[in-house]
Records
---
Amino acid sequence: MASTRRDTRRPGRGGTSQSQAPKARGQHRIYQPGKRHMELIPSVSRSSGLDKDGDALRDQKVQEEYREFIQTKVDDYWKAYPLRGPVPGSGEYGPEAARHKKETEENLLILFRKLREGLLSRQRRDAFALEVYETSLHLSVLFKSPVQTTSTLSHLFPNFYMSISNSTRRPPTRPVSSAANGPATQPLENSPPQPPPSALPSTLILLLHHLVSSYPSQLAFYTRLHELHPVLQRLLREPHAAARGPSAGSIPPASPKDRPSGAVDAHAVGENPPTPPSAHDWLTALARCLRRRTYARLDGLTRRAAFRRFAPAPDREQRARCPREDQDQDQDQDQGGDGGRDLALEAIQALVDELVAKARGTTWRALRTAYREVHLRATVAAAGARGSETTAAWLARSLVLRGQGGAGRADGEALDAVEGWLEVRAAKGEARRKEGEGMEGRWILVK
């Protein structure tokens, strides 16, 4: 009796069903014949030229196409996560959204790193390379990736700005007279190089990065400051017009021991002390404030108006690449604008905020050591022309809690800001509210 064998193979595991499956599903979602697929271009360092398209990013045209490809992803990121939007992980965003945001940021930085490798392999030093390096630097700061920030800074310093100023800018000229042809011009001999306007904010980012990464030590900061190219040092020392607006960039008064003998307290006579005239003065004043732990002065030095003038407004092409926001119209007006965000200014702001957070932590540790208990509603004598203020207002100024309604705000807003801060500290076991009748506004600080 002939036996029959039953074919138990499942569709898709062999035979015609497997060969027909890809046709049924259609083309690969990325690969399309005849088109350059940016997603699949390997980095120069990983391929060593052996893989297919392994040297593609060495080609200038491909580099420019790849930059536009990255920009589409950057635009999608800003639409999903605006700069002034809620912070993932708190409020409207949950842990899953925060994780997705971080993964998107890391992928964007990887794409920029691949493009930087292509630029470096060709030693490309032009306006396009400068834009790639600077955008990569700004995003690495905003995405809180110190490793990528350090890597990008190594491309720009110490000599990139000097080389691009020599290759892309014509030297200054002086008028000369000619009997035959009339007035003419000729290049000035030994004229100093003129770095692009973006060199100043990038230099500030370099120095602030070292202040943040090595806090509380300032050795790396002063070492890099003294090692800067003389042209960049001169650029740092050039005076800039102060930002306009009421009390823009004003700095709280120094304590009597910080003022020279015979100096007059400007607040006592009803005037605001002038802002540091140059970026160098602002940086060194900020470093001195952190070193001497005069944290109450951070309020003026770290306000946006104190350093906004050091970041030139982006041109039309740069503004088109900046994230745009519909909310926060007052902030848009403060930037002069149309809703476009200047990434260089935002990166400086991010580093300044990190410095404030570190200084706030040091101040908080000192307060917990010096005081066992605080009464937020109590009135205490204040320095200068302030007369008196509540303990809450003093703490808000010392901890630089202006973002939540602190320094320079009404006592009620300062009370809310400090109590919100203490609630967060209480969750970490560093403070607790004093219970009982008549104990409103009293907190015990846990050492």
---
Amino acid sequence: MDAQASIPIDPALLTTSTHNVNVLPHDSSAPTHKANVSQYDSYAAYELAGKKMVCLINPNFSVCMALKVRIMDLRGRYEDIPMEQSEVERYFEIYNLMLQHVPWLEDELKIMDAPEFDKVANKLTKGMSDQRSMDLGSLKHAGLAYIPFKMNTTFTLDPPLLKGEDKSDRGFNHPQIARLLCPRKKLHLFDEDEAGTMIALQTGDIPVTVYNWPSFFYEEGVYDPQNRLRGLFRGHITWRFYVHLFVGPSAAAKGVVTSNTAKKAKNRAWTLTEVTPHIITYVHVIAYFTLTAELKWTNTTGEIDFAEMAWTIVDMFENRDKWTRETLEWWNMHAFPRRPQNCSRSSKRSLEPDSDDDVMHIRTKRGSTLSNNTPATDSSSGTLGNDVLSNHMSSVSGSTINPSESTSAAVGSTETSSATGFNFDALATEERNGSPLTSDEELESTSVTVRRPKPVLKKRKKADDMIFTTDTDDPPAGVTVETARVATRNTRRHTGKKHANGF
């Protein structure tokens, strides 16, 4: 549990805040309030937002503390938040990123009471936990297949690792995995004395912290002790983890970045169009945890704090220098390859001299034949001339029609009839089940879309002191959607009125 989360916030500090926090403005086109829908749908939206946050913000942060810090600033003194300045700024950065996924959250915090706060924080946290567990489960065994530098070669771990729940034979207990986790600066020692270096890594004689990058964070065979940025975050293992999670397992197995399967991975489900430093952070943390001996998600392993590791990686991209630009360009170039502008595959093929391309030869021949046999415009010939066409259209419509206009009108009519005669949106694609090693997975079912209008919520009572005296950052486990719905029905039975969102 986050140590800061257990620090209660004194209710006496709840006075009008005079600190001007740099909260990013909302997108004017995005809704700034929840839809007037049932509690189940409303909380499902929070849960889906949590699934996105863990991948696109940070794999391990306290939702409660991010919300508490913002509420305390709204109604208290910013200077008295019981954290270091750097920690407070970090949580404000998290909060700004959260607003991209729940844009109505800022308005809700101003009128949110303690029970609602607990429910919202619980749903966001649950979404994060579920998504992280789903990704770790998907990569628990499949991730080991991404270790070899060349995927098309026969590769086996020695000693082999059997599929099962136990991971105790991974981490620094397995020579090949220990080499990947070994700090890159000490890799030469590992290659010289494998057994001795493994013992040193296990006992801590060789320190393993978030400040000395593991070997697999670097590009294979690329390391400069005088320039330790070279090759950093370009490892083939983390790249394949990204493809597995954001494009699809089948794409990662084939070594491609496109997937045509019915089930959508993150890029398609969430319409992601770029790789950000936070996404790079997520795949590195998930890859590191997969290689460790930890069975279930934990905040720390040995001297490694995963939250600190995540922020350390993100901080590496703060300085917009040449390395940052080139690293982000490397990831995006591989993740979203684009053809050169104004140069399609057909034009490339047609420009090649003496080509053996039979298709292009036939198309070129047909094109020249068609141009040499243009239909005659004389009505005496066997073709339908423009005069005949004009007279025919005039007799049908009772008015004079320009031949060119009539032709374009006929084409437009055909297109309209085709477009309106068949509803392509009505087609449903049947999902197929498959192994995580051979099929894309999971995320299509999590895309909850609220399609109802979003009227302005009625103002509820302001937040009470219970929000700021919570002793833990974990929301009460007993608060569920079902209990909230029962409470809503009981309230309606006594009052005879329908309250918004159960209040």
